[in-house]
Structure formats: structure tokens, C-alpha cells
Amino acid sequence: MDRRSHDLDEKSGDPELRHIDDSAVAGSGSDIHPDDHDLTEQEQKQIIRRVDRRLVVTVGLMYCVSLMDRTNMSAANIAGMSVELQLGANYNIANLLFFIPYIICQPPSTIICRAIGPRIHLAIITILWGAVMIGMGFVQNFGQLAGTRVLLGVLEAGFFPSCVYLLSTWYTRYEVGKRYSLFYLLGCVASAFAGILAYGLMQMNGLANLTGWRWIFTMEGILTCCLGIAGYWLLVDFPDSNRKNWSFLGDRERAWVVSRIARDRGDSKVEAFNMGKFLRAGTDWKIWAYALIFCCSTTLSYALAYTLPIILIENMGFNVAQAQCLVAPPYAFAGFVMLLTGWLGDKYRVRGPIIIVNMVLALIGLPIMGWHSNANVRYFGVFLVTAGANSNIPAVMSFQANNVRGQWKRAFCSATLVGFGGIGGIAGSLVFREQDKLTGYKPGMYACITAALLNIVLVCICDLAFWRQNGKADREGKILEAHDEDASSSFRYTY
């Protein structure tokens, strides 16, 4: 049997789905079948495209403003915020303070999302953090700035893990790579064009007696609130939900979506929440390995997000206007690499090698970025580091999503993954320090190189374990990732 076979041939006992179609999980295979639920192959492809447009695009656009709102500090900083508020080294502390509540408040987020539904949960927190962003445009000192950053961390904590969890419930294991890449690509669009947008908003300097950096926060906060309101109408609930927001899918179409998930990994059935079962997922060492890989990846990506414009000015000699605009090309290149690696990972059903390739890109780019004598060549190194660091985010998300079974284990894994991503954010906000600019930020470069190397080691350990466990399952019929007594024996890890 192929190690990545995922035909489960299971029957679902979920009472929530019986009113849809008694045969919701009949059949075999997770690919498109022309006779499945009396839907033609063309109809099934159209359903997937409709889900892509309604779900991936919506959460991607919302993540776009989420990433922009948490990382626009660098644009505001070079626009005069540090001088006006007399921040100095407190700039790094203000960045760090976001991640403390961001980490603490994430574990309950997927539980809340399941309880009240992603439409309400994601829309409300988006509107609220947009209001906080508007308030950041009126802060008068470091204390007020720190308070708004903490509140922003509390509200944004529920967004990313809920999106990762929601996407994983709609797609099969070898479809999520492309979708995670597109989802995160839209976030990279924010990073790419946030600098250009910020430069445009800076030109409002003096309007209504507000300085340019204040308009960056205020206008981006208004944009976030508008997108949060739109998200309530555009977002969808989980495919197994009884909530009625199904104008784009009928019951028969929804039953087909649920059935293919059941065939793929056998965890479409949602058990009643049990704190013991939820926390028991923490006994699996692989959960923490995925989380640590994600932590190292976000250390790289946040280090760039918070300080790239500053590095372009201090280390490469560009002026403020050039730095704001030169942030965009490396992120555009990262988007191309992200989509390519996501497509290759899904096509060839591999995850670990994609992560390693991304980290090799970063390891090539970091020495160029940090040590080459020519500023233009150092800027080329920025392209490689940005591509490797940011392409790794959806790659790691796909890596963990393919190797976890059970709805509540998946929810726990999403929360811990993104929680450790927040720890990476803390590290990333401190990697390139103000006192290191005279040395070309060399300590930060060493830290990023270490993070990339650690990722390669961790992925190799995981893939070796997966190879051994898959072989044992083939020989002995061992059930992998069993989440209940009816779990299928045909699940295999993806490495």
C-alpha cells in the first residue's frame, strides 16, 4: 500500500450530518468521483472553486489587514513615531508586548470559534481590533502605545489559528498546501504594499493636526473595520455546522464536502468538547515539533516585517521614501515562491522537503544580506531571505495539517502552532536591535541563521519518525493517529 494512501471507506455516525444525507460518508477515495452524491465531475470541481472564492479569498483578505495592522509599526517608526513619542529602545518593547497576550489568548480561540461559529467570531474580533488601530493614531506616550499593542494582541490572538483550523476542515490533506499558500500570499500582499500605502498616508501629515504616522494607524484601522463588517456576510461556517449560511452551497453539495473529508482522514465527525481530550493532544511530541518549526519560521518572517525598512535605511543607505517602496519587491517574489512550493507540495504529496528548500534559500540569502560589501547585492539577499522565510509559513501549516487527525487534536495543534508563532514574533521583534546597527545587525543575522538550521534538523527528525511509523503500519497494520476506536488503519504520515 502506498504510504500516502488515504482511502478510508468510513461511515459517519455524526447526528448533525444525518439530516443532510444518510450516505454522506459512503464511497471510497478522496479525489473527485463522477458518481459521488449524484454530482458530475464538473459539478464537484465547481463546488471546490466556489469554496475557494468564498472561503480562501475572504480569510486571505482579512489576514491581509491582520498582518498589516500588527507589522505597520516599522512604517510608523520611520515616519516619525519614535521621535514624537521619544521611544528609543521602547520601540522594540512595544513590538514585543503585542505577542504576550497574542500567545496567552490563542488556546481558547479555536474552542470559541467552534462554539459560536467562525463568521461571528472572526468578524467581531476584526472590527474590534480595527477600532484599536484607530485609537493608536491618537496615543500621546509610550504607555498608551503599549496599552493599545497589548489590546491588539488580545483581539488578534483568535484570528490566525481559527483561520488555519477552518481551512483544514474544508479541504483534503493534499489540497491544503495550495490553499494555505494563497491564504498567506494575500497576507504577504499586505507586507509588500503596506510600505507604499504607508508612504501615501504619510503625505496626509498635518491634516486635522495629525502627523503622518498617526494617519497610517487611523486609516488602516478604518479599512480593517470595513473588512470586518464585510467578513460577517462573506465568511462561512464549518462544513458540518447546522448554522444557516449556506447560500453558496446546498445540502447535497455540503454533504459531498463532508464525505470527502471523512474519506481523506476520517475525522469529519465532531465530538462534544472535552477538556481532557483537548489537552491530551499535548502529549504527542510531534505537536511540539511542528510548533517549534513554526516558531523558527516566524522568527525570520517577523524580524523582516518589523525591521526591514529600518535595515534598508541604516544598513543599505536608502532614504525613507525608497525604503518604504523597496519593501514591496522582495515580498512579491516571496509570493511567487510560495505559490510554486505550495503547488509542488500538493502535486507530489511532500511537505518536509519543501520546508528544507525554503530554509536553504534563507541560508543563502542571510550571509549575502549581512556581509556583502555592495548595498545592491545585499538587497538581492533580502529577496532570498524574504522568500524562504515567508514561504515556510504555509509550508509548515500544511506539514502539521497533513499529519494530525481528530477535530479537537487539530484544534489544539492549530492553537499551539500559532502560539509558538507568537513566540517567534517576540524573538523576531528583538532580533535586529537598535544598538546593533553600527555592526550591520550581525547578531540578528546569526540568530536568523540558527533558526533556519534548527528548522532543517527538526524536519529531518520528524520525517525519519514518519518513515519508520509508516513502515511499521504497513508491516503490522498499526493504526496511526487514532482519535477514536473506529479510526481507519489506512492513514499514513506525509513527509
UniProtKB/TrEMBL annotation:
It is a multi-pass membrane protein. InterPro entries: MFS, MFS_dom, MFS_trans_sf. Residues 1-22, 32-43 have a biased composition (Basic and acidic residues). The chain crosses the membrane at residues 120-138, 150-170, 182-201, 213-235, 287-308, 328-345, 352-371, 377-399, 411-432, 444-466. SUPFAM superfamilies: MFS general substrate transporter (SSF103473). Residues 55-470 form the Major facilitator superfamily (MFS) profile domain. It comes from the Eukaryota. It is found in: Membrane. Pfam families: MFS_1. The keyword Transport applies. Signal peptide: none annotated. Keywords: Membrane, Transmembrane, Transmembrane helix, Transport. One of its GO terms (molecular function) is transmembrane transporter activity. Its main location: membrane. One of its GO terms (cellular component) is membrane. Residues 1-43 are annotated as: Disordered. This is Major facilitator superfamily domain-containing protein. It comes from Emericellopsis atlantica.
